[in-house]
Design goal:
about 180 residues; alpha+beta; 5-stranded antiparallel beta sheet; two-stranded antiparallel ribbon; 8 helices; 7 strands; about 45% helix; elongated; disordered N terminus
Length: about 180
């Protein structure tokens, strides 16, 4: 499906390979600088529903209201997927998780951006890395080598992931990760 047909009725924010924030809206790709007042209002309403994100943006010392919204859209909605972030002015995709390049080292991780949820649990950054290796078909010894962890640590993290996703096997982990990428 071509991106313009996916987003004819919704809005999708995304960071392009050039590192700039854009949005798809009504079939058009627009740079963030060209967003409408309606788009900014929609983002502001969504931001205000997330007090942790508001506080994190304050902690970043971003005082310009438009720059606050740019940061929020970048962190929370920067990835692309097959579901618009907003339809009819309402957020429909709060579970969007994307690799911004700062995962695991950003002091605001999980406060502005989305984390991967599994029921009432959150998959940690380390668990996510291991789960991705499992989804690629790596064995425990290969994961341990690639992540510079002991095999016992890898096994423990796999056990933790399985508990969080209510899974029974590595196939369940792979399916969970592949579903979150959609």
């Amino acid at each position: 499906m071509h991106a313009t047909s996916i987003y004819e009725k919704g809005v999708e924010y995304f960071v392009a390979p050039d590192g700039k924030l854009y949005l798809w809206e009504m079939g058009d790709k627009l740079p963030f600088e060209k967003v409408t007042i309606d788009d900014l209002t929609m983002l502001r309403r969504d931001l205000e529903k997330n007090p942790d994100a508001v506080k994190a943006i304050e902690d970043l010392d971003i005082t310009d209201p438009v720059e606050q919204l740019r940061q929020y859209a970048w962190c929370r909605y920067g990835g692309t997927n097959v579901t618009p972030d907003f339809i009819d002015g309402k957020s429909v995709n709060n579970e969007e998780y994307w690799e911004c390049g700062k995962r695991g080292k950003c002091p605001f991780e999980g406060r502005i951006c989305s984390t991967i949820s599994a029921g009432n649990n959150t998959i940690t950054h380390c668990e996510l890395i291991i789960a991705r290796y499992i989804a690629k078909g790596y064995r425990n010894t290969e994961i341990a080598w690639a992540t510079n962890k002991s095999i016992e640590t890898v096994k423990q993290q796999i056990k933790s992931i399985l508990q969080k996703i209510d899974g029974r096997s590595r196939v369940d982990i792979a399916n969970f990760i592949n579903e979150k990428r959609k």
